[in-house]
Specification:
The structure holds 3 protein chains of 3 kinds. Chain A is an alpha/beta fold. Helix content of chain A is 36%, strand content 29%. Classes of the chains: A alpha/beta, B mainly alpha, C alpha+beta. Chains in contact: A-B, A-C, B-C.
Chain lengths: 323, 276, 530
Amino acid sequence: MIEIRGLTKRFGQLTAVDNLNLRVEKGEIFGFLGPNGAGKTTTIMMILGLIRPTSGSVRIFGKELSEDYFGIKKRLGVLSEYQYMYDEMTAREYLTFFARLYQVEQGEKRVQEVLERVRLRDRQDELVGGYSKGMKQKLGLARVLLHDPEILILDEPTSSLDPYGVREVRDILLEEHERGRTLLISSHLLSEIERISTRVGIMNKGRLLAENTMDELRRRLTQEVTITVDLESIPDGVVDKLRELPNVVSVETVPVSRDGAGAGMSLVIKTKPGAERRAEIARVLSSAGAIILGMRTSEMNLEEVFITITENNISLLAEEGVA
Amino acid sequence: MSATSYRLHATRLIAGRELRSTVFGIGIYIVMTIAFVLASYGVNSFLYNISQNGALAMPSPLLLPLFVAVFLSSLYLGLLSSLTISRERDQGTLEVLFYGPVDSFSYVMGKFIEQMLVFGVFILFNLVFFAFVALITNFGFSLDIIWLLLISFFVAASVVAFGIFLSSITKSSRASVFLFILFMAFFIGFFWGYSTLMGIPDKELSAGMIYLRQALDYLRRVIEWVSPLEYLNRGALAVASSSVSGFFAAVGESLAYGVVLLAASIFFFNRKGVKK
Amino acid sequence: MVMRTEGKVMVRRLLLGLLLAGTVAGAQLVVAPGQSGAATGAADQATVAGDTQSPAEGTQSSSNGTQPAGNGNASSGSESNKSASGSTLAPWEKDMPQPTEEELKGEGVPEKEKQLVYSLSPWTATEKEPYGGTFVPKSESTFFLLADHPSLVNPVRTEVYYWPITKEYMADWFGFREDVPGKLEILQNGKVIKTLEKVKYTYKYGGEDWSQAPTLIVGEEAVKEYQAYNDAMDAYYKAMTKYYEDYDAWNKYMEKLIKRVQQTGKPAKPEEIPEAPKQPEPPKIYVTEPTEAFLVNLPAGEYEIRTVKDGKVVPDSEKKLVVVAPRRQGIGYVVVPESKWTRPFTSDDRSQLLYTWGSRTLYIGVFDSLEYNRYAYTRLTQVHVPLAGKGTETQWQWVQTKERTDVRLQLVKNGDVIQEIVRQPFYVKQTPGYALGYQIVPFDEKDPEMQGQKPTLWGFRVVVPEGEGYQIRVVDAKGNVLPESVRDIRSVAQQGPWALYAVSAFPLVVGGLIYGLRRTRVPRRKPLPV
């Protein structure tokens, strides 16, 4: 549906998007991730033709935008992060205007349908200027759905919503996905992306660092497993012995205050991902005479992966050949 | 559906939306009231002078007040126009429009047509007001008033095009408004200074003032093609002197001016894009 | 439209004073500072003489030609001497600009330069001053003439200086003047289209009315006219001589008669008292001495001119000549409202309607008018003033060329002529006593108050009634309406200013209604918390 080839955008010395290659297939939900300034909004703007690329091409529905500007635009639904609306209009007037702009058949009826879908029907005659951020977000989504677009491009679609609203929007997006619509979602709420995306792309500093399924990304990008062991005391020399273990990256001692149980110590052991290490660690500790009070393992979720990758491990990713 | 049909459709919708927004606002009514108060002051001044002298000869005394009223209205629209693109760009609503089937041509033309429709409202009010003034003063509702209103429409088009042009080249609504006010203050100041100097006989002018007048005259040869006020002035003079050719020349010139500026606006709009 | 300078008025007054005193010959002429008498050459003679009141004034004007040029300078210099000599200043002189130290030492006095200039008497298209006077100094490359009417151009070598006080060039015609012989070539696009030879010309003043403009007479006719004038003057002087002789004889006889009556105490019989000899009437014309110049009469366009002598172009004689034609022609009105007769106003074309405050009486003068480019028309008579007209190149002005005395004025209502008015003389009668004021009445020579007076104004008296649909227009002797003479007249309604201000607020009322209606239909709720 969307095919990006060698897309580059330079603003003077700054390269906002650097030789981006990406495909969003029909019917998938593509999660587009990246910190501020990563170049993802610039990429979306270039997809929409609102920023002219320095080089490269974007094809939507197999055509470049210039080939069928109005035809392609009519088949896209775009929701931006911030809801820019005409405050002096009512919600109904606002949607009616866009229904006419997109030449939606039975526009008035359709306006009522989408208002119902985002649960704003009873507030439709109020001025948009009086809407809360969350209501505006939902009204924006209503606008996107109004003309039943084949591709939905959504930038932070749940950013201003309360948990209930987030769920509502998520349900709507999943419904659209089930109806065969293609979604390109850019978000910083990685938990949301993790829940609904079929594929994810991660951008940083204009480059696409990773593009794959969620499981594969997690597998590739999770670099460390943290094992925390609570001990009554730390025997001499045990820390060094642990460090000598082949898969251990680091060992730190952390004093812990336990309510009603007096003071104790914890060891925070970071190991390489992959094989199970807990048994080996427990063996070394037991042989040193340590009394283990508890042991727990924490693996990075996507958000942690994302932050780790984009800020610290770009070279690692490059070595893995993903970028 | 062809691209042209899409463009016209979008143009019509954008113009309609903007018109509705302006008509429902209170701004144009305040501006019209101010314009009419100033026009009334002018009319009263004429009445006073006639009463003092017993009689006077002049082109329709309503022409100058009408000139002031339509020029003020044009300025207001120009100011709105100078805000129109940059403000929408600032507010982000411009971006939202361009997510859909809207391109720079349809957007700029929509804005332009909307302003002209608003000016149509101005003209309607002016017609009513000056017809009434003509009636109660017995100055007479001459055809000149209709002609001046007609030419003012084209001149307003050039003022609006000028405003849209500024709006298209500036980064923020503040900058475009500042530029518009700066240009208009300069044009008005120049017009006033030039007219004043021209009205003073040579013998009452010092050498410095004569050189200044000459410099202003040279400058005017450039400004008369740049300042929308000069188009209105030319049109008003053509009406006052019943010059049909002068009238149509002023119409043609202001149309050409508007078209050039709108084309430039679309060009610069495309270059600057819709993002803040 | 004819501008009369204060200086010219002073010259006229002085001439009149000298004439009344009977000291015509050898009178010293003083011209006000800043006068350009010296700058205008032959044409200025015409201007001055044209405004004088008797034939003898013409003689005086002629003597003007012998006085030193640069009158303004001379006058100023005279004041300087006074101050320099340390003599006490008269009270009125204290307020006048005093010469600076530099001026007293002779510094800052303009330097004269011998130049070839063109002395011009351009036709101005006006009835009262048909010929202006100026010259083209070396520094000016272009001069202007009006199209399709002869103007006089004469190349002359003279001394020229710049007079900063009036910001103009002056020519010291009387200090040094040398006519440049040769022919005048007129070129267009580099090709000679005309070669002119000098012709004799003269101005003839007077006739029935001394206020009439002089007539330009050229060729042999000029010489004849001048001869006829001289003959008339000779005859007049002879008659005057005889008159003085007769008067002397009559005087002597009367003295004897009076002596006898005193001695005898017997009154003289009526038949013994002879009638006193009558002073002869002077000629009612004045003709200037014929001089030579080129008579240039060209259609509108741009030309180059040069003086050629023996096949060679005289150095500094090449100039650009722009001949201009009027843009429009029409009928102009000068309107004197009865209520403010000192504040007349003009209506130059039909776009300038006449507005009256209620019913008014107007005295209207009718003029032929031509619309010229303001810059060209100003430069026409002021080439010697470098700054004159600068910056007015794109402006236009109406010039009232000739008062129409051969027409009738019609007052029309809705297309029907309701009154036809003839031109009449009027007299402004001052109201004496407590209620100072005036009254404009038809001029009547028999009225004791007007005996020996002249009409204050001539015009068509129109009483404009209140109401709508009135027009004035002018018809010629055959009853044809003159084009562009139609003017609408509107009697404006007399009402207070507040009615208009009240009406001005109606957009606000409409806007308020719309705004209010919208507000009531669309409730604005407080935003929900985010």
